């Protein structure tokens, strides 16, 4: 396969970037998208150019590091998939592929396709945890919880923090990410106790980080590699209003 | 949380939902009142003018009407604040394929809302202002003859078309707005979420076609008989 690429190149956060054209021969349909990028980078290194920088780690769809806007879609044209799990068989010989970084005011570009997603870390730091004293591990069956409850909490906890929800949102809202953590913890007995404080401080941090409003377009759920439900957002809204009303 | 205004993204959306749902409720009452226009001409005139008189004289309705004006203004201003903030936070792409992941009307609530606002300006000018501040002819029962004003307005095809198109803008606005409001208010139970979504669809269709059929019916069947 021959593939034409238009890739966002940017030296650093302060320098304006632009799309640069590349051509790549000998692309094999079975290559993953990131292997195609590796092939391009080998070619760039051999010709003495700076390789295209992009985030990646596990390459098996679970770490949430990789993430690119591929032809204007977060993680490419397939729903519920990370970039590393996308294969070149989704494209045709002679296709032109636009590759841009995930964008949003809260996600400044650091270099090429690499963006600073530390805003997510700060949202988690604001309350995405349960306060427990260290020491001996408690008895596992000490706190009663049903299987369904545990599964439901785990569905919310499955978020890998890739940022596709923000990238695909027309307002760059982080509602799905933030709400997944809030819902995960409020569904568990250990997390329930701090839920009021948690939702207020996590939402406050989310707003401080320049994420937009959630307007319920539900695009985030479509692109989420973990299919995190938008109902988590509704759960966050409920918990938030409740906490505001009950706050002393 | 915005330190200056002490509001959050979630609070702004809650306000949108509350004012929006009140407007949704109002539309039902408004439509029920308007359906009187579909009665046979003489009966419609008596019924509609009497109803208008009843509403304008009632103190309870007066209070509701102020809540209504406030809701329209707050819904509009809040939408403007939200849209301006979203414009600042939103990422922009050279190649944007995101249209594939959501419904077009869910992404264009601001444009649909603006169309509805433009419609409201004409709607208020032609009927509300006329009734409250204009000099209207009287019908044989001594009521202000709003019925004839309405029938006269719908004699022009372009005016009818403007009305019908505006109702479709409203319809798509409701199709997203109704269920979105429930979400913003925190309805997260899967069973009721799907109920509300289906109810919202039926509601939007009823409101859209209910309002749109009236000018078409009047244009095709009724003619002005001034007293």
Automatic annotation (TrEMBL), chain A:
Ranges for domain 4Fe-4S ferredoxin-type: 150-179
Parts forming coiled coils: none
InterPro entries (UniProt xref): 2Fe-2S_ferredoxin-like_sf, 2Fe2S_fd_BS, 4Fe4S_Fe-S-bd, Beta-grasp_dom_sf, Helical_ferredxn, SDH/FRD_Iron-Sulfur, Succ_DH/fum_Rdtase_N
Highest taxon of the lineage: Bacteria
Cofactor(s) needed: [3Fe-4S] cluster; [2Fe-2S] cluster
Family: Belongs to the succinate dehydrogenase/fumarate reductase iron-sulfur protein family.
Protein name from the UniProt record: Succinate dehydrogenase/fumarate reductase iron-sulfur subunit
Provenance organism: Pedobacter gandavensis
Species classification: Bacteria, Pseudomonadati, Bacteroidota, Sphingobacteriia, Sphingobacteriales
Automatic annotation (TrEMBL), chain B:
Source taxon at top rank: Bacteria
UniProt keyword Membrane, yes or no: yes
Bilayer-crossing regions: 64-84, 105-124, 157-181, 202-220
The keyword Transmembrane is assigned to this record: yes
Keywords: Membrane, Transmembrane, Transmembrane helix
Gene3D superfamilies hit by this protein: Fumarate reductase/succinate dehydrogenase, transmembrane subunit
SUPFAM superfamilies named among the record's database cross-references: Fumarate reductase respiratory complex transmembrane subunits
Descriptive protein name: Succinate dehydrogenase
């Amino acid at each position: 396969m021959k593939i034409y690429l238009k890739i966002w190149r940017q030296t650093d956060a302060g320098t304006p970037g632009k799309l640069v054209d590349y051509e790549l021969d000998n692309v094999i349909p079975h290559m993953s998208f990131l292997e195609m990028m590796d092939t391009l980078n080998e070619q760039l290194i051999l010709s003495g150019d700076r390789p295209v920088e992009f985030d990646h780690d596990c390459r098996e769809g679970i770490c949430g590091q990789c993430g690119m806007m591929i032809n204007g879609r977060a993680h490419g044209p397939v729903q519920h998939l990370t970039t590393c799990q996308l294969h070149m068989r989704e494209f045709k010989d002679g296709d032109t592929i636009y590759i841009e970084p995930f964008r949003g005011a809260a996600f400044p570009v650091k270099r090429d396709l690499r963006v600073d997603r530390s805003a997510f870390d700060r949202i988690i730091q604001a309350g995405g945890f349960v306060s427990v004293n260290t020491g001996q591990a408690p008895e596992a069956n000490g706190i009663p919880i049903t299987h369904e409850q545990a599964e439901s909490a785990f569905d919310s906890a499955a978020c890998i923090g890739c940022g596709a929800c923000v990238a695909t949102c027309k307002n760059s809202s982080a509602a799905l990410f933030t709400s997944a953590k809030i819902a995960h913890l409020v569904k568990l007995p250990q997390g329930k106790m701090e839920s009021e404080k948690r939702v207020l401080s996590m939402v406050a941090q989310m707003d401080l980080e320049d994420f937009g409003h959630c307007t319920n377009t539900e695009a985030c759920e479509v692109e989420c590699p973990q299919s995190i439900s938008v109902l988590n957002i509704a759960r966050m809204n409920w918990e938030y209003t409740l906490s505001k009303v009950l706050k002393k | 949380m915005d330190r200056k205004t002490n509001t959050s993204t979630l609070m702004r959306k809650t306000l949108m939902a509350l004012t929006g749902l009140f407007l949704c409720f109002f539309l039902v009452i408004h439509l029920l009142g308007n359906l009187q226009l579909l009665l046979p001409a003489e009966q419609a005139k008596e019924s509609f003018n009497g109803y208008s008189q009843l509403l304008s004289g009632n103190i309870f309705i007066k209070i509701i009407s102020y809540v209504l004006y406030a809701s329209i203004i707050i819904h509009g201003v809040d939408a403007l604040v939200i849209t301006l903030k979203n414009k600042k936070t939103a990422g922009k792409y050279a190649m944007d394929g995101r249209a594939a992941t959501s419904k077009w009307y869910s992404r264009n609530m601001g444009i649909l809302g603006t169309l509805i606002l433009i419609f409201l300006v004409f709607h208020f000018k032609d009927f509300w202002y006329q009734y409250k501040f204009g000099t209207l002819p009287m019908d044989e029962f001594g009521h202000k003859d709003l019925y004839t004003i309405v029938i006269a307005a719908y004699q022009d095809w372009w005016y009818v078309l403007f009305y019908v198109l505006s109702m479709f803008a409203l319809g798509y606005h409701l199709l997203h707005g109704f269920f979105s409001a429930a979400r913003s208010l925190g309805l997260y139970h899967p069973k009721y979420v799907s109920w509300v979504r289906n109810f919202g669809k039926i509601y939007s269709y009823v409101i859209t076609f209910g309002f749109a059929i009236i000018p078409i019916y009047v244009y095709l069947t009724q003619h002005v008989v001034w007293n």
